[in-house]
Amino acid sequence: MKRSELAGPALAKPVLDRSALLDVQDISRLYGPGKGCESIDFRLHAGEVLGIVGESGSGKSTLLRVLAGLETPDAGRVIYHTNDGELDLYAISEARRRALLRLEWGLVHQNPRDGLRMGVSAGANVGERLMALGERHYGNLRAAGQDWMTQVELDAGRIDDAPLTFSGGMQQRLQIARTLVTRPRLVFMDEPTGGLDVSVQARLLDMIRTLVRQLGLSVVLVTHDLAVARLLSHRLLVMRRGQVVEAGLTDQILDDPQHAYTQLLVSSVLTP
Amino acid sequence: MNGYNFAYLDEQTKRMIRRALLKAVAIPGYQVPFGGREMPMPYGWGTGGMQLTASILGGDDVLKVIDQGADDTTNAVSIRAFFERVAGVETTTATAAADVIQTRHRIPETPLEHDQILVFQVPIPEPLRFIEPSEQETRLMHALEEYGVMHVKLYEDIARYGHIATTYAYPVKVDGRYVMDPSPIPKFDNPKLDMSAALMLFGAGREKRLYAIPPYTRVESLDFEDHPFEIQQWDEHCALCGSDHSFLDEVITDDAGNRLFICSDTDYCLTRRGEVA
User: Among residues B242, B246, B252, B276, which one has the least CA distance to residue B264?
Assistant: First the structure.
């Protein structure tokens, strides 16, 4: 079966949708044959949560790194629709790209240690992106820190504590606060609940879902956990060996998987 | 001169350093790499400053060397003796009489003139190093003016101590562009960098970087709107000369806990006491 036949209606290309946020056109980044991601096409709309699922080594994290500007693709384009026009992510200057990453986009790492500055206090972590934007008022930075810590359900009284003294779930919340403080339009999340125990995971997912709805965020979510994908994402891409094997609405894919690999994936979910 | 080339370094090396210095002056606050040479002393003792001094020193220049403001400490005495021996130049302790002043950790209290050059010994030239260990990344951050992280450190100070507790190597922005580490001078001396009449050169021997502040260049210390930059103040006056406006060192005088506050700039203190002309 050809890949184009697999693409669901959501991937149908020439639909002129004004609210498109990100256009991914034929992106490839291969480290070797079948290692990385190959000819990926999709469109992300404003306010949409897109889940990318697949087994380890299927290329989902590579794809995320390419989308988030951390890795240059071998081929293809990533078009970001801003309020004043289109930006080709890998054609604009590095300065512009980094500014975009810092201000309008956000990246939530799987391991909060990668996304946080562990040596400085929680408040400084939350305030960093604001300081990069040019905020030079300590009182405002602190107020924003406390406000965002409350929003991610952390105790605002711990604003001066180092992230090292926080639990894994709290660190992940802090990383989310730090990312959302500049009110980005687009957030990339790489296994945001990986490594957390189930009860903490459930509360974190609940919080992410609330924030996404409140702030109208668009999210690209990479996960291997189908339960997480079902809870958060509107649409799913299923990846295997660097290629998208199935794409469509989340419920449709999880309830009625078409591709053999997706069927295997869905049937492998443990239910207690 | 005793078998050495004038001012110890060979002419090609001095030429290379002068060329790097021209670049540094042309781009205020930008760190220029240079081919640092071995000097007959360990890194950390001022090898960077010495290479700069050796490169700009002329036969009729008068040299002054200070260490923490004092002319009579080990580092100052040995570097002064070194240049007396390998360059045969005249040396002085009087700030006003010097053409070139090599310094560690202080800017003299006596205002500098436009025909003087101040050479700083710098241990860590990169102000972003504490937050970003990668040289590649810090260079990119300088190139793209990504200086938000500098305020993270100041924020952290206020959060922890209630005020900006950084007292030395206080980061500055030069001519509205490059963030620069002014070497470990006390922040008391930061205002003297701004619109200084004298040329200021900075040399880091171990890291092989040099940078400069040309005369009459804007130099701002980073701060927050609601926590503005402030310099140190003392309740005491200098116990020797009575100065109430110079940088004071606290000196313990006996085992009973008695102490004195005295000027760290020895030449300034002696001049005020009338002990030198």
Answer: B246
The pLDDT tens digits for B35-64 are: 999 999 999 899 999 999 999 999 999 999
A interface residues, B as partner, C-beta within 8 Å: 94-95, 98, 102, 117, 120-121, 123-124, 127-129, 131-134, 136-139, 141-142, 159-160
Biggest CA pair distance of chain A: 60
In chain B, residues with a C-beta closer than 8 Å to the C-beta of A129 are 148
Per-residue pLDDT of B234-259, as tens digits, reads 999 999 999 999 999 999 999 998 99
> How many angstroms away from the CA of B221 is the closest CA of chain A?
13
Contacts of B131 in chain A (CB under 8 A): 117
**Fold of the B11-221 domain:** Rossmann fold (3.40.50)
Complex-level ipTM: 0.82
Is there a contact between B155 and B164 (Cβ–Cβ < 8 Å)? no
Q: Which residues contact A46 (CB under 8 A, 6 or more apart)?
A: A19, A20, A21, A185, A216, A218
- Cα separation, B277 vs A51, in Å, equals 80
DSSP symbols for B219-256:
EEE--BTTB-------SS--TTT--SSS-EEEEE-STT
Cβ-in-10-Å burial (0-12, 13-18, 19+) of A142 comes to buried
Determine the Cα–Cα distance for residues B145 and B123; give it in Å rounded to an integer: 23
Strand runs labelled E in B2-68: 32-33, 62-67
